[in-house]
Design a protein that fits this description.
Helices cover 43% and strands 1% of the residues. By secondary structure, the protein is mainly α. Helix 15 crosses helix 16. It is globular and about 85 Å long.
Length: 565
Amino acid sequence: AAQVSEFVSDARPDKRSRLIDDLLQQPGWADNWVGYWQDVLAENPNILKPTLNNTGPFRWWIYESLLDNKPLDRFATELIMMEGSTRYGGPAGFAVASENDAPLAAKAQNIGLAFLAFDMRCARCHDAPAHRFTQENLFNLAAMLHRGEQTLPKTSTIPGDDAAHASLLVSVTLKPGQKIPAKWPFADDLFAAGATAGQFPQQGPSSARGSEGASPASPSQLLLDPGDEREELALRITAPQNERFAKVAVNRLWQRYFGRGIVEPVDDWETAEPSHPELLEWLAREFVLHDYDLKHVARLIVSSRAYQRAATADEELVKLFAAPLKRRMSAEQVFDSLLAAAGKEPHVEELTFDVDGSMQETAAIHLGVPRRAWQFTSLSNERDRPSLSLPYAQTAMDVLEAFGWRASRQDPLTVRDREPNVLAPAILANGIIGKRAAQLSEDSVFVAIALEAKSPDQFVSRVMRQVLSREPTAAERELLVELIGEGFETRKTGSPAGPRPGWPKRDGVSWSNHLSSESNELRVARQKEVEKGDPPTTLLAADWRERAEDLVWTLLNSPEFVWIP
């Protein structure tokens, strides 16, 4: 609300560009993008049995990279190199996938989707029928990640001999046990005209930007370790001569801001053509010339006239980029916005079953206390035991999953399901997080507004601005003032403040004692505690407070709250 007031009262003609610059410097930039990259890169840690076909938690590396505005070529390079911590947030967590017959083939296809818009998923067990990729191409990349040849597992091919394969609609060109070498399989088809396969300017990927006329050099001359095939893979993907890398990146930004990419689908360009090739070319060149700075391209996009137009549901207008697509907020945005509107913290448990630290990190990990939506993960309670529940965290998961978030990300995903469902409005109207956001407890910003407001009209205006970032219409103002007008003058009780909601305390339940009946009883009691929501403030009269809560609840459940303006 304070930002809205400041912007509205700012008389400077360049106030919009100033606001854009200010917002791009906020930590919210990183918070907003982490969930997207978690989906795209299939970041999938599990707090229980974390090596069972999961990744490590490299979420904090994503967050800190975005917070530092790390150039995307460096971001991709660090991810591909997979160095550092596996269990404590480093990019080595991307490499974790122990219960998998060919884990590096899975990583290769994720990298191809994320940075090159190569959909190689069908090449996992045979040559891709609808794409140009062979199974050998995928395993060449896997071998580069492995830093040595890969053996094709029996489980990564179609059973049968050549005669049996001849009748199939797909081609099987590799045999189980075959050795696949570590080499770049795509010749020069990723590179700009004039740049032959294996030739780059003398400078490295960062300093070579714009270095026309430099004499060519082999990739090995640009590597810290000339024999490191994994480093060579990172170089070939991120080199400025690989125009595809830059174009895929800026197309991802365009799609996120407009609801539709210049190239669709965003992560599979096999038969796709850009709707506006000159625009794609210009954005990609701007991206490279500004050191792969995502914020630079984001600033160009959100400063455009096209982005400033009112959002529309007309797909034909969106295809022309006459306006952005009208769409619902992401699950993470909905959850974080509920709490931001109310001025509240999530107040959930630590994400771990190993509270007493008795388990090895191969059996259980600790993902800390989440404060933003992207920090949640699967609660891993397939055993359906009350003692293994995390009731406070589950209330957050209920909201996130209803709006399309995935607790388990076994596969990469760029665009989530946008179809409306009955659970989304139901969880806002009846769920615990929606209830907590509307409750006027001692930590609610609406209590402060109620105590400071000079009139019912002022209270309504400030609450509308806090929740919907605008002033009420005349009809809304009349209706809402009537709702809370009665008793406004006597709303303050004069009582001391009551208990302030806080983070749940540890109750002693852990994996080491979860089979005991007492542990089950403790968690059942906690579930009942959770269902009550936050204790109401003692500073406001109950009758007036409940009507004020009805007002807040109504605004939070309006379609306007969950739709991007």
